[in-house]
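question for whoever is on the cluster today: can someone run the full assembly for these? two chains, 451 residues total. i dont have access anymore since they changed the login thing
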Amino acid sequence: MSKHHVTTVINGEPMEFLCEAQQTLLDVLRDELHLTGSKEGCGSGDCGACSVILDGKLVCSCLMLGVEAEGRKIITVEGVADGDKLHPVQQKFLEHAALQCGFCTPGFIVAAKALLDENKNPTEEETRYWLAGNLCRCTGYDKIIRAVLDAAAVMRGEASA
Amino acid sequence: MPRVSYTAPATVDEAVKALASAAGLAKVLSGGTDLLVQLKSGRVKPDLIVDMKRIPGLIGIREEADAWVIGASTPGEMISANERLEHAFPGVVEGTDLIGSTQIQGRASIAGNLCNGSPAADSVPPVIAARGVAIVAGPNGRREVPVEAIVTGPGRTSLAKGEFVVEFRLPKPKPRQAGAYLRFIPRTEMDIAVVGCAVDVTLDASGTCTDARVVLGAVAPTQLVVDEAAKALIGHKLDVDTLAKLDAAAQKACKPITDKRGTIEYRTKIAGVLARRAAAIAFERAAARA
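^ ran it for u. tokens below:
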């Protein structure tokens, strides 16, 4: 079976890849493009460790075929920082110790960035509901929520970076 | 995952041709939030995947003179973001919005929720209650199918080979008509309905119900349109006696199973409770439109 040729933009850079129809976008990111920040936790859309932003919307890359990415713009965790400068969400995850084993962290970072791109001033409740599709078995979530709310305050210019 | 072919047709006709001429099993792909899980687990082994999202109109919402039209592959987040649609069909929007996480909402569609054939699908009862019609394309052209006639059992639909849902038409509500959907889950988020209930009512100027639809989910192999429950509402205001009759009619219609989410007895009782609560919300919304 012939491979599909897919043209896409990943983290702002035009990118082409070949993939088989049954490969998920997560398979392509990790195995073909070596962007291994996105993780496979459950592979069934329950845990959010594979979260990416597709044309501005948060999706699970494990629930999407690589070939569906044709002509789409994708942001992965590798594209969240501005060069060496961490995104406020990343900086606040460090400061609040919002990670322990770190496996779920890329998904949380991408999901939190997608939230703050859409809503500059989310309530705690909105933040918890938004992140309900991201599972963390270490932190108990509280530090993650505080880190995201603090990052939102920084991005609004109401707290120090 | 096992090997499969993929095509993304640009027109409805091409899609019908691809589905109808496929050797072996062809599966329709919208958001993929059910299909990809089934592919990975090996529960479904298609030879061909037909991605409908490149067909113009399959993603999108439009208002026509007498109806709202929702493209079959329109993701939940786009449905929730449409305030005018939400005002017209609050039950449909709240049912769709209950499906999965933010990530799932970015992809999951009503057509996928429907054609996956789960008795617990949250978007389906409110679309049926709103008298939604599925526009089905196939080798013999297009046909209009009431949404309640699509699913025939768990994982099964009445669609023939080569057919797929193109869009849903929801007739515009009358002046004092509104819907509501409630589901019961033992937590606050991220779960599958133990019971779901959609109610759609039309009131007259005095607040008396002149037309109604009551639809239950997760209490039978398919969604149930409960005519006896609608009859309990029609001709009445929402008084204690009417609520009791509604509750009894909803319970009587249930044919649930016992599983890890709930027993037959529990599901049956909850169906009556949700019918009363959803009716109260629908009446309030309809009255507020007067």
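summary bc i know u wont read the tokens: The mean pLDDT of chain A is 97. The two ends of chain A are 51 Å apart (CA to CA).
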